[in-house]
Each structure stands twice: as structure tokens, then as C-alpha cells.
Design brief:
The complex is a heterodimer of chains A (114) and B (111).
Chain A (H helix, E strand, L loop, with lengths): L3 E4 L2 E4 L5 E7 L5 E7 L5 E9 L2 E4 L6 E3 L9 E3 L8 E8 L9 E2 L3 E5 L1
Chain B lengths: L4 E3 L2 E5 L4 E6 L4 E9 L5 E8 L4 E4 L2 E6 L4 E6 L8 E9 L5 E3 L3 E6 L1
Chain lengths: 114, 111
């Protein structure tokens, strides 16, 4: 089935450690997104990419980094500079050409501090 | 922040009743979308309404859009316990690909 796969489902980070969240899609979508969701809150955009080898900062990019070397993959690294990383992270993808196409979401990674 | 606001933050109803949730936003939009999120899961797209549309139906869902007031509402008719979830509106503005999400309404439908 076509969809978005995020891994791992749960992740724990030690102080000073960088961690990488995986996001893979087989929907042949050009655009991919990373969101952060805090308890009881909406989604805030961290980074997005509309094409391979290109990405833009979202509203809360500080302390995060991404790469887009392949169309199918958009990994997110939470660096040690992100002082409050505990949150639910969601990856999404969409077709770029048509703005009426919805975003498709993975089932998220829950990141906690050890 | 450009996040929209949703109202109410939480809603508790009985099965069979209707649920109405509202969304306000801040900028000119190309379209507005509603998503559903079950606890601990990703979001699922429910319905999209374009800026030149005023009302749209999909099954038990009815969405209205008032661009003069920058607001939208989602009505779920004859609710079921399985409708229990958080519901988010998201706007896509006229210039960019990214969506701006509201703060969400948590709906609890009791049997």
C-alpha cells in the first residue's frame, strides 16, 4: 500500500546527543514536511522540501536539520541545540503541482528526553 | 504565529447528536482543509473547501466557509463513538505550498 512510514515510533535522547527521525514515502510526492506537535496543540512546521536537494525552514527550524537526497526520504535530525525536544513529530507529503491535494501523514515519532 | 484558532477546544456529546466545531484564520486563502487525528496517530484528511465555495458535503460531514469573516465550520451529523478524535482545520494561502494548522478541537462522543 502507498503511504508514509516514520520510524522509530518512540525515541529517547540523552543530553548533548543528536538523534535522527526517519520518514519514507512511496506516494511519488515531490513535497515533504516535518511538523512538531506539543500536547494539546496544533502542528507547527519545522522544515519542508518541494524538490530533491532543496528545503526551506518553517516556523520553528532552530535546533533541527534535514536533508533531501532522495525523493522518497526526508530525515529530520534533532540536534543538541534544541533544548526542548520532547514532542510528537509528524512527517507528511503532498503533490506539489495541485494546491487542492491534501497532505498525507505518517503515524509519528514520539521523542522524549532521558 | 500564524496558527488559526479553533473553537471549542473540547466538545463532549452523546452518540446520535451533532457536533459543530469552528475555525478562524488570519490570511487570504486558496483553500481550507479539515483533518482528523486519533490519539497517538497521524492526521487524516477529511474534506477540502476552496475559497470560492461556501458549503461542501461529504457523507456525514458538512463544511462551510465565510471568507469575509475568515472562518469555517465543520458539522458532523449523527455522531458515533468512533468519531472521537481531535479535529484540525488547516489553511493553504494563495502563495505557498505549506499549510497552517489550527489549534484543534477534541471531540468525545459517548455511547
Amino acid at each position: 500500500d502507498g503511504g508514509i512510514t516514520q520510524s522509530p515510533k518512540y525515541l529517547f535522547r540523552k543530553e548533548g546527543q543528536n538523534v535522527t527521525l526517519s520518514c519514507e514515502q512511496n506516494l511519488n510526492h515531490d513535497a515533504m514536511y516535518w511538523y512538531r506537535q506539543d500536547p494539546g496543540q496544533g502542528l507547527r512546521l519545522i522544515y519542508y522540501s518541494q524538490i530533491v536537494n532543496d528545503f526551506q525552514k518553517g516556523d520553528i527550524a532552530e535546533g533541527y536539520s534535514v536533508s533531501r537526497e532522495k525523493k522518497e526520504s526526508f530525515p529530520l535530525t534533532v540536534t543538541s541545540a534544541q533544548k526542548n525536544p520532547t514532542a510528537f513529530y509528524l512527517c507528511a507529503s503532498s503533490a506539489v503541482a495541485d494546491r487542492t491535494q491534501p497532505q498525507h501523514f505518517g503515524d509519528g515519532t514520539r521523542l522524549s528526553i532521558l | 504565529s500564524q496558527q488559526g484558532e479553533e473553537d471549542p477546544q473540547a466538545l463532549s456529546i452523546q452518540e446520535g447528536e451533532n457536533a459543530t466545531m469552528n475555525c478562524s484564520y488570519k490570511t487570504s486563502i486558496n483553500n481550507l482543509q479539515w483533518y482528523r487525528q486519533n490519539s497517538g496517530r497521524g492526521l487524516v484528511h477529511l474534506i477540502l473547501i476552496r475559497s470560492n465555495e461556501r458549503e461542501k458535503h461529504s457523507g456525514r460531514l458538512r463544511v462551510t466557509l465565510d471568507t469575509s469573516k475568515k472562518s469555517s465550520s465543520l458539522l458532523i451529523t449523527a455522531s458515533r463513538a468512533a468519531d472521537t478524535a481531535s479535529y484540525f482545520c488547516a489553511t493553504r494561502d494563495t502563495g505557498f505550498q505549506k499549510l497552517v494548522f489550527g489549534t484543534g478541537t477534541r471531540l468525545l462522543v459517548s455511547p
